[in-house]
């Protein structure tokens, strides 16, 4: 786990205290349901509800002897309840409690992650609106391509995390399933009414069919949603890291007044948050592989999945919570330099307008092959001699025989690239 970075509300979900509290709630709800069926007498139900309790320390002591967590839990609860405890866990098997409780914990965790993601989108939206028409160079293969705006870049981030939000919400529904169906899922010793009653009270849907466990493709899908959100975080943290390189320096992570960047070099301001987020995203992807391996179990059940889930589910939800909290802070406090963006945009002497020139020449009657050859020749010369592309074109009599100064004003105007910005913002909901 990553307890150092755990916010209390997320860490508490995976605590023994919360886990056993959910177990106890399931057992009491099952007794309530069986009371309605006439299986558990009212007096015994009243006594169970009044006395049922547990001690984590005592459960751990019992488990050390019996080597079974659910039996240790039931033994401790029985110590509190007394003779009426004979009705607790009636007709159930351990996985009925374990899997149903795990579903509750996973719901509690994903609800926090959904809230986190909404805050990240809010931060991205704010930056997108603020820099909606701030010009910067777009890059393909890491090389200058054509102008975009920083607002468009952040709008893309907002849109991508919108899909992440939908994935988390879909995963919430996939995992919102419980079961109380007995030893191999046949309801041989427990009425399906009990399962429906308990699940409804917990905000779950009873499984249409189960074995002794809920099938692990559900848990793998949940983990896939987490890993995909992590992959998007990785993508944007990498983006900001590249934009902070000294040679680029268009954005920077906020650097506190008392912050230190290097033990050796006092001048350093490093993108340490982005680097950390990229690293933790790898952990999520690795844990997804383990979740996929959990899908294939023997017959009606084995417990090879259990030990894995006790690590990957707490670790992944805690890690992603930490990731999202830090990404939101990174985006909200991101230092943006429009002046540096414009400086970089102009650094290639107008080469970024080459496509506009190409298209203009084809409209003026040149074949595409002729136009491409002429523009490429002048573009390479501009790159090698550091002259302006426009100046070289204006000095070309073959081109200028068909082109006016007004034509060149239009193709070397940045505004051409930004005329669709407003529509794009509307399309993504900004």
Number of helices: 18
Instruction: Tell me the structural class.
Output: mainly alpha
Order of neighbouring strands in the sheet with most strands: 1-2
How far is the first residue's CA from the last residue's CA? 37 Å
The largest sheet is:
2 strands, antiparallel
Q: What's the CATH topology name of the largest domain?
A: Fumarase C, Chain A, domain 2
Kindly provide the name of the CATH class of the largest domain. Mainly Alpha
CATH superfamily annotation of the largest domain: Fumarase/aspartase (Central domain)
Percent in helix: 55-70%
| SSE ordering | HHHHHHEEHEHEHEHHEHHHHHHH
The average pLDDT value, as a whole number, equals 94
CATH architecture assignment name of the largest domain = Up-down Bundle
Low-confidence spans: none
Percent range for β-strand residues: under 5%
Shape: elongated
In short:
The protein is mainly alpha-helical. The chain has 18 helices and six strands.
Q: What's the structural blueprint in terms of helices and strands?
A:
Blueprint: H1 8-13, H2 16-36, H3 42-51, H4 56-66, H5 69-81, H6 94-130, E1 135-140, E2 143-149, H7 150-175, E3 177-178, H8 192-202, E4 205-206, H9 217-243, E5 251-252, H10 272-293, H11 304-332, E6 335-336, H12 338-345, H13 354-363, H14 368-385, H15 389-394, H16 397-400, H17 405-411, H18 421-427
Parallel strand pairs: 3-4
Antiparallel strand pairs: 1-2, 5-6
Helix pairs in contact: 2-3, 2-6, 2-8, 4-5, 6-7, 6-11, 7-9, 9-10, 9-11, 10-11, 13-14
Q: If you had to describe this structure to a student in words, what would you say it looks like?
A:
- The protein is mainly α and 430 residues long.
- It folds into three domains: 90 residues, Orthogonal Bundle (Fumarase C, Chain B, domain 1); 251 residues, Fumarase C, Chain A, domain 2, CATH 1.20.200; 61 residues, Ribonucleotide Reductase Protein R1, domain 1, CATH 1.10.40.30.
- Helices cover 63% and strands 5% of the residues.
- It is elongated, with a radius of gyration of 31 Å.
């Amino acid at each position: 786990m990553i307890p150092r970075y755990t916010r209390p509300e997320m860490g508490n979900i995976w605590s023994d205290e919360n886990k056993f509290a959910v177990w106890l709630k399931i057992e009491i709800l099952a007794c309530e349901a069986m009371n309605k069926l006439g299986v558990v007498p009212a007096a015994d139900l009243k006594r169970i509800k009044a006395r049922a309790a547990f001690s984590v320390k005592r459960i751990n002591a019992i488990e050390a002897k019996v080597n079974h967590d659910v039996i240790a839990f039931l033994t401790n609860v029985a110590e509190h309840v007394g003779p009426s405890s004979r009705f607790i866990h009636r007709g159930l098997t351990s996985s009925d409690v374990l899997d149903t409780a795990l579903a509750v914990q996973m719901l509690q965790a994903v609800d926090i992650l959904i809230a986190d993601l909404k805050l990240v989108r809010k931060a991205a939206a704010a930056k997108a609106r603020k820099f909606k028409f701030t010009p910067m160079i777009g890059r393909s293969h890491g090389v200058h391509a054509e102008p975009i705006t920083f607002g468009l870049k952040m709008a893309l981030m907002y849109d991508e995390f919108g899909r992440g939000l939908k994935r988390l919400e879909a995963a919430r529904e996939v995992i919102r399933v419980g079961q109380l169906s007995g030893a191999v899922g046949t309801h041989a010793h427990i009425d399906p009414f009990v399962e429906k009653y308990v699940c409804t009270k917990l905000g779950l849907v009873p499984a249409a069919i189960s074995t002794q466990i809920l099938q692990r493709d559900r848990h793998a899908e949940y983990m896939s949603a987490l890993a995909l959100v992590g992959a998007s975080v990785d993508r944007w943290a990498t983006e900001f890291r590249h934009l902070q390189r000294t040679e680029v320096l268009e954005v920077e992570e906020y650097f506190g007044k008392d912050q230190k960047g290097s033990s050796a070099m006092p001048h350093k301001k490093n993108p340490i948050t982005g680097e950390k987020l990229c690293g933790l995203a790898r952990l999520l992807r690795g844990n997804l592989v383990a979740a996929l391996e959990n899908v294939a179990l023997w017959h009606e059940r084995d417990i090879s999945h259990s030990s894995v889930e006790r690590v990957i589910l707490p670790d992944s939800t805690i890690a992603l919570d930490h990731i999202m909290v830090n990404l939101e802070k990174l985006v909200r406090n991101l230092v943006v330099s429009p002046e540096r963006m414009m400086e970089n945009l102009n650094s290639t002497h107008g080469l970024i307008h080459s496509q506009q020139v190409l298209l203009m020449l084809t409209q003026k009657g040149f074949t595409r092959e002729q136009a491409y050859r002429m523009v490429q020749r002048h573009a390479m010369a501009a790159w090698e001699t550091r002259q302006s592309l426009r100046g070289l074109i204006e000095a070309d009599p073959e081109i200028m025989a068909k082109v006016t100064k007004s034509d060149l004003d239009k193709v070397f105007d940045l505004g051409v690239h930004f005329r669709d910005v407003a529509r794009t913002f509307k399309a993504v909901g900004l």
